[in-house]
């Protein structure tokens, strides 16, 4: 009976989480359609908000074995959507405009697809009790997203080894990724999922610094930082936690 109640709770939580995620995406799509923000900023607002909002709903789920997989329905749906849009099977100019750099639907098969895959991996493999999941999502969403926003506005002084990256953007990325990670550590500790400690805080700092260092390299522009940043976070996080 407990197992049945847990599954029912998780199905309900999955429906709520998926609904909120879709509404949030729809909200940004509508703003992109209306031209409220310029395309680059619109894309980064989606980048920052979707993953972090999704993580807020993880405590709704039970401790059952199916919970992380039911929670992952929303990002898996997004993976399917990115594939259909990126292949041109489905057309939606508002979604493409809100998630792509240059308005090319084929871009969705790169950064946005990697983004959705990262959220899915963090949910199904690591889940809410793992600092690795927190670090990966927070550095991808908050860190990488804020870096672009700050770098474009205040990044006049460029890095000596990468003229497309700035000191301001890199500092913003390390700070945002770290602060978001610590914030979620405290948030999940309220539900007993993660224990607050200085060791974890230091680990989050190391992961954010490593992710920032990799993001600043020219290779991240070549392979897409939506791929290199989470991979670095997963690798370094698995070593320090």
From TrEMBL:
Entry GO MF terms: kinase activity
Keyword Heme: no
Domain of life where this protein originates: Eukaryota
Gene Ontology CC annotations of this record: chloroplast membrane
Compartments in which it is found: Plastid, Chloroplast membrane
Topology of this chain in the membrane: Multi-pass membrane protein
Keywords: Chloroplast, Kinase, Membrane, Plastid, Transferase, Transit peptide, Transmembrane, Transmembrane helix
Transmembrane segments: 45-61, 67-87, 108-127, 167-186, 198-217
Main localization category: plastid
Family to which the UniProt record says this protein belongs: Belongs to the polyprenol kinase family.
Name under which the protein is recorded: Uncharacterized protein
Organism: Spirodela intermedia (Intermediate duckweed)
UniProt lineage: Eukaryota, Viridiplantae, Streptophyta, Embryophyta, Tracheophyta
